[in-house]
Amino acid sequence: MQRRTLLKLGIGATVVFAVAGGGVALLSPGVVGGRLAPGARAVMHAVARAVLDGALPSAIPAQDRAIQAHLERLDAAIGAFPAATQAELSQLLSLLASAPGRLALTGLRTAWTQASVAEVQQALQALRTSSLNLKLQAYHALRDLTNAAYFSDESAWLSMGYPGPTPV
């Protein structure tokens, strides 16, 4: 194959993926009205289980309550973001919520709601170790949003043994 043919093929594939990704984002946004849409909520629920593994309560009912409270804090944080940031996050979450986007970006074959913690951790690791900046940015966005929203709650501090800030 000649170099020009290869370049044309690469550009064509990029255009197809961009159009398909944009179409997914328009048809099913990840953020609506400053809050996570259902598909994006499923993504962030799975990401929270994977990123916060070991920091979450071990009992399932307590863990579910902690994740639901975490998702509410995440909604509040997203609602405070500028519109441009919400739009970018919406595109990412919409892409990840779709099966083709999830598979293309993370390699995760299982739906977010069915994936085990280990599977999601492996998918996040694939993002983290990718040589593509887009995947690295996606990883950092997911991890940083998760940690910021979870550890902004004082009850998370106590479970880690952090007594809170020292009074000045």
What can you tell me about this protein's structure?
The chain has a two-stranded antiparallel ribbon with strand order 1-2. It has 8 helices and 2 strands; from the N terminus they run αββααααααα. It has helices at residues 3-27, 38-51, 60-80, 83-97, 99-106, 117-128, 133-151, 154-160; strands at residues 31-32, 35-36. The model has no long low-confidence stretch (mean pLDDT 88). By secondary structure, the chain is mainly α. It has one domain. It is globular, with a radius of gyration of 18 Å.
Give the tags.
single chain, 168 residues, mainly alpha, 2 strands, 72% helix, 2% strand
Write the layout of secondary structure elements.
Blueprint lengths: L2 H25 L3 E2 L2 E2 L1 H14 L8 H21 L2 H15 L1 H8 L10 H12 L4 H19 L2 H7 L8
Helix pairs in contact: 1-4, 2-3, 2-4, 2-6, 2-7, 3-7, 4-5, 6-7
Main β sheet profile: 2 strands, antiparallel
Encode the helix/strand succession as letters: HEEHHHHHHH
Structural domain count: 1
Percentage of residues in DSSP E strands: under 5%
DSSP strand count? 2
Low-pLDDT residue intervals, each spanning 5 or more residues? none
**Distance between termini?**
69 Å
Side by side, the strands of the main sheet go 1-2
Count the DSSP helices: 8
Structural class by secondary-structure content: mainly alpha
Question: What do the pLDDT scores average to?
Answer: 88
Any idea what the shape is? Answer: globular
Percent in helix: over 70%
- Could you tell me the radius of gyration in angstroms? 18 Å
